[in-house]
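User: Hey, my collaborator sent me this sequence without any context and asked if I could get a structure. I don't really work with proteins. Can you help?
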Amino acid sequence: MNRKKLFFILTLFLVLVMFGSCASSEERAAQKADFARKVKVSLDQRVFKISVNRMIPMSGSSRSVSYGYSVEVKNDSLFSNLPYFGKAYQVPYGGGKGLTFNAPISHYQESQKKNGARQIDIEVKNDEDTYSYQMTVYDNGSSSINVQGRQREGISYSGEVVFDSK
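Assistant: No problem. I've predicted the 3D structure and written it out in structure-token form, which is a compact way to encode the shape of the chain:
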């Protein structure tokens, strides 16, 4: 094969690769925009779920969390299924429910932060304690949750907004 043919083939190959990468970056941008739209809609409707992957106790080191722990908001109810490590000041015999409970939301307030994230403040009360959940949710779905109870030391979590695959 002579040099002109080789040069032509290489140039054609590079042009095709460049167009292919542009298309895939456009697809990624479209997927990000679609996901951000889904996050916005679910927060606007007050129907969303945050799957937790890390917990950060006030004292002690952070820990990875296995699949299955989450916080879910459905209209006027909070479904909390979170592990708890920390000091408990007054709890029922046997440790109580911890942060695994369902309760009606007594207070819900949402605000927009300067960095584009949405901060959601929720207060709930169950038969053991009153809790404040402060959630920060970003367009890409990454989230942080800070839980403060009256009878327990505060704890934080990080996770991702998830959508049912239905």
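In plain terms: The CA atoms of residues 105 and 124 lie 5 Å apart. You can pass these tokens on to your collaborator as they are.
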